[in-house]
Amino acid sequence: MRKFFDSNALWLSMLIGALGYKIFLPLKPSLPWLIFFMLFFTFCKVNPKDLRLHKWHWVVLFLQIALSLAAYAITYLLTGSRFMAQGLMLCFVMPTATAAPIIAGKLGGSIQNLTTFTLLSNFATAIVVPVLFPLVNPLAEKAFWPAFTLIISHISPLLLGPFFGAWLLRISYQWRTKKEFVLPTSIAVVPFYLWVCSIVVLTATVTETVIANFYDQLSNILILLVASFFACLLQFGLGKLIGYHLPAPSKGRDYQDVLINPAAAPKTMEGVSSITAGQAFGQKNTSLGVWMAQTYLHPLAALGAAAYIIWQNLFNSVQLFVVAHKK
Hints:
Low-confidence stretches: 252-259
Largest sheet: none
Distance between the termini: 15 Å
Oligomer: single chain
Mean pLDDT: 80
């Protein structure tokens, strides 16, 4: 039963969230807490000393920004619709999901390398977005520092809070016991189930947005659904390709730490990096994307990020299903 749930949890949670969206919408205020504790337990697995920047980090970050600009320019030239162009641009400019290390760990990727990129990607977005969005939306706030401060204030509590909390727990444990801190196996699976709960609530929110605009924007919603699908496949595919050709060690002589992530142990360094970079590029912080669209862009541009939620979680569901049935 547990094997079935682990390999099908994401699409089941999306289905439950969509069908029962009216029930789960009141739980929206719980999302920050779910994400906070999900990240706290994930960061407890990682020793900050193991966080290192690698070549594929910079390549993926550059392509994330470059493709977002290209997506906006091409879509606007083809359709003449600013909100359509903004919606597709969001599919690329959104930073890596704060929950990406959880899925990467389940697939056999490097949790520590992806944690490093998650921090890099989110803070790079906080710098790029205040510069980029006024260029694509004349009505956006043009002052850099107010925009930068607003985005940082949205990201920091959910990203830095769990990170430093886990770090302090590790330091205090080692100071008291003189032993290396290792998260118990029984607790190590908690972040995945917290992520599943957050997917239910996120899907309920997206369903409400789509229903509210369904009749007025049906054709544009369908176009964004299709475009975001190909954007999702492109980013996962490019990430896997980059990671394979620019492999990066995780830790230790065998390039992976079995205590941190046993699923990575049978794989080569190229295989681990391919999984890690694929999740880094393809799995997006969609809740932040929806918020950025509603704050800086045309409100309906948020549908691009909303559609991406569907595709990235279906893609992750397929990956988890394949990995589960290989065991």
